[in-house]
Amino acid sequence: RDGTGRYRQSPVRDAGQMVAAMKRGSSVLELLGSPPGKPAPQAARPTSPKDAATKKARTSPESGTLPFAPKRSSEAKAPTTPEKQTGGKTSGNGKSQIDALTGKKLQRTVNEKKTKEQELQRAAELLQANAGKFAAALEAEGGEEPSDEAEDVGDETWDAERRLQVAQAAWSGREAEPVGSLSAPTFDPVAAPPPQVGGRVAFSALVPVFELAASGAGEAPTLCAVANALRQIAQHSSDEHRASELCAALRLLLAGGAHVVPHRQLTEAVNVTFGFTRAGARQLPVEELPERARAGRAKQRTLMRVPGSSVAEVAAILTDAAGEGPKLVDRLAKMLGSSPGGSEISQLVRVLQGRPALPWHVALRGLAHAMSPKRESNAAALVALEDAVCRAYSHGGGPDMRLVASLLEGSDAEALIAACPPECGVPMAFMRPEQLRDRQAAVERLRSDAAHAVHVEWLVQGDRAQVHIKGGRVEAVFVPSAVGAAVGIGAVPRADFLEEAAAVLVGNIAGDCILDVMLLRLPRKAAVGAEEAAEKASGEAQEEVGENSSPDIAEGAEPEKSTQPEKQQEKAVVERSIIVLDVIFLNGTSLVQAPLRERRARLAELVTETPRLKVVPGIELAAAELTEETLRKKLEEALGAAFLATSREEKAISRADGLVLKWLDGPESAYFAGRRASAWLALARPPVTGPEADKMLLDTLTDEERKHLPELSEFHFTVISGFRTRSVEGINDILRIQKLYNDAGVVPTWYVDNECPDEYRKLGLQVVKAGKLIPARNHALVDAEALNKICVQTSDDIGSWTFLNDAARYFSDEEANAAAKRCEKLEVSPAAAARFLTAVMRARGPGKCKLAGVYPLGNGGRAMRAKPFLHQNFILGDFFVAEVSRCRFDERMSLKEDYDFTCSHLDAHGEALRCNRLIITAKHETNAGGACAIRDAAGERERFNIGILREKWGDSIKNHPTRANQVVLRWKAPKRKAADDESPAEETVVRPAKQAKVSKQNSKPAAAAAA
Known about the structure:
This protein is 40% helix and 14% strand. Strands 15, 16, 17, 18, 19, 20, 21, 22, 23, 24 and 25 form an eleven-stranded mixed beta sheet that branches.
């Protein structure tokens, strides 16, 4: 813009000159008035030291507000290549496109640099935190690492025996507690009235409960404190306000889920109240805001004691937070300004954030304890009332006046559940099955009560939902929510599911009801001709595939492209089928207390089945009929059913991850909303892991192959890595690989780049400085040969080794996918995988095969279509074993070196073994560092290396039928001259290309041909 504020077009056409002029300090008007092709003259006006500092700050690279001049002057520009011609918008050095006036591209470069620096900083911190982690493994096997699985604390608490012990501990055996403390069993609420504000209970009455929960005092003292605080509120509230005060207190104890104050508005309120700058406070993480408010209050001086806020006022803020808008900040500022300092204001902010540090189940169980007259003498009655309170709470979708009023009237467990039934339009929490991995454990659990029959149904894949139907129309659809689960509700509305559910249910449901269902997405219809083209491409690439190069035929896979226009695809309504699991409410009657047998009978009358609407498949078994073999057969039937289905509708409703076993009769067969019940057991086929998996893998060897099984001492285990210590993801991958080897009793040697060996050693690894990728691979081969050991090379980004324990070959996608889903999976160690491959390889005969590897894709369905073992196919470089051999990697290559290495072995020895039942998970083209740092977006390096492959191996290297810059190996032994056959045996086999040296200039024809 010029001085009048209007936009003017600059006659300057050379962006490099413009940037240089701006660097010198030329004004905008001088730039606009410059003749085309000439830089603007430097401004002659004098500059003060302050102006000079401002100009320096504005033009420095660190500020990022204006472009800075390139390192080379515009007069010494590099020759412009075709790919760098950008219509006059390149910088003077031709390296990046920029907007000369706004510098947007340059700003993006600065941001990327800043992000990279932040990543390096985080990586350095992680490296320091894990310094010496595996140092002990260099001398002895590493110790056992803690499990990565997160504990589901909320589910653990529903163990009746454990809760009985906690209830007993809460009200007895803690005489050491101070008499006046809320956590003391002897606390007298009559003698200790709560603080009040304007005749209502003050928020400060709950602060000791929050402090106790945050201190980690234990479940029993916290449970006792919650109960005594609620007893105190009930004792000293008026009859008119008693129920509302308890309901408000319960809402604060359960703060979270949908009822939270947005962080932006709460931050703004803290700024306004305590005079902080908005920019500084807005950058604060959520966890630091309570302390910021506490510090702000501590700096303020007050002439008189501030009254604080009442429980009812804070609860009203939480209830109204979603719809208040701008008024919310004013209400929050007023509340924060009237709050005392210290812990009270920090706890208030935490509650408003929905982070009270109190588990939801403790708050509800505390309510049950507060309302029970026999809390000290009858722990069993307490546990029963806990169940009833949690179920009633889950029926109403949150703190409900019906729940509190019924408790105040002295209702027992059954009366409480009857007083708080489900209602159409009000979300309920879902009942969930207990997860089991062992079939035998499931049999023992369910046969413990021989009088109960069991319903065995499929664990269907899909979106779990709760559909509310009233007056023949779908009123609402609710789905599980992790946010809601934090406060025990766990269900939120999904308006986008309404139309999809109505299309299937309307006209097929006879009554007003609440249904527990699974919404299943129908497979899309393939475009005309797309299915045949995909099948053809799949067939061409079937026998031989390279890394990440085959179409994925996993369950539900579709053609990548559709002939349908994009706009039509966006507007198309998703087609769904529905599996009905249960009915909770029917025609005004709650069925949560009814046994499962009765609820299934009601379902049969309620639902009219169609191809897209079914009641969940299953059978009834007597307890005596439950055996491990029966469950195994039913599990295999469920896992493979979807792949054998013939129609889209049948395929959708047949997708299952396992079985759910449910008691049909007895009190435990009721619908327990909001909890994971032991009367429902989910059973899936888990992979076999650890030493058991390794043993089962080696047990699959034949007698002849077992004769050739090597010991671990016969291997040189190596990991090829480069620059992975410069990112958090890379360090985590390093730690994972090292742990997998250490757990198997092996200490691998890391062959790393020339820049980072000290960083790898800092982790306690055994490191060899080996240079770039290909030299590092050859270095490992040479070291193994010097040790006379088998070389095992491993990439640094492998997540797991999985053996599909099924030797059969399947000839259709459906059968192969079904087999991959239901077969036994062994999660083996890399050491066991190496021993297995070597034994099979050596059994082929002496000198006949000296290279063995795994299936090159992570797709189990594709693997099951191939023979278990192949002998003249591509061996993936991510994991292989190689006997001492003359073959080496071609160091002219930077990518696809594993194709060349495979061809070298096939040429020298005639075979290379590949096990198509051993699969690894690797990141290949997405991780940072290593070979992925070599790839370029345009694919030029890929084509350059393909050109080398074609020159060396000719017709054996084919273009991949569906993916650019990828190849397929179909081995054909090259024709040799007589002189080649007379070459000495000790010569290293690295077949020369047709020309002695392949430079970038003379490789262009080959690369173009490959493209």
